[in-house]
Specification:
By secondary structure, the chain is mostly helical. The protein is built from 8 helices and no strands.
Length: about 200
Amino acid sequence: MIKEFFNLRRYEEIMGKSFSFFSPMTWTYIGFFPPALGFVSVALGQIWIGVILFLLGGVLDEIDGKVARWSGRTSYFGGFADGVVDRFADFFFILSFFFLDFPGGMLDIPVILFVLLFVTLMPPFIVAYANHRKTVPDPTEKVIWRFSFRIEYYFLFIFVLIFSRINIWISFYLMLFSLLLNGATVIQALVLVFIKSKNYPQQP
């Protein structure tokens, strides 16, 4: 949602030029490792190192696309690889939450985290699959607008980790808010696919 309201063209040009010493695909592949190591760090109790690594992963996720557009080396495979690495990073992020000491009470924390994983991974799948099946052609992910794009929930996840070392209850409620936001985004994406599909031919 945030990126829909800001024109960051100058920022993108600076990022693309500054990091063009590696190819876009190289940046994409490098971006796989910080979230994986971030999960390992959190699992070992090194929360702050995990925060730094997940933040680094978020920065690297920004770089590959900027370099690709600035250098004119965008490709379908590059977009595919970037999306796959993003989903692995989301998985590692939520997997790390299993190692936080959330207050349970009457709530089954593993089940909640499983649902969080599902509603986090579903919106990009819905958009990509609607495009793939030509239900709603949306190769740039602009037609099916969403409450929560990756930048929103990624920062929420960062704060979940940070507050797990400051106030676990705040961390817990941030996690629940992430679940509700991403769950609402799943519903929103499905409704928009249903509505906007009427604007496109649905037979081959």
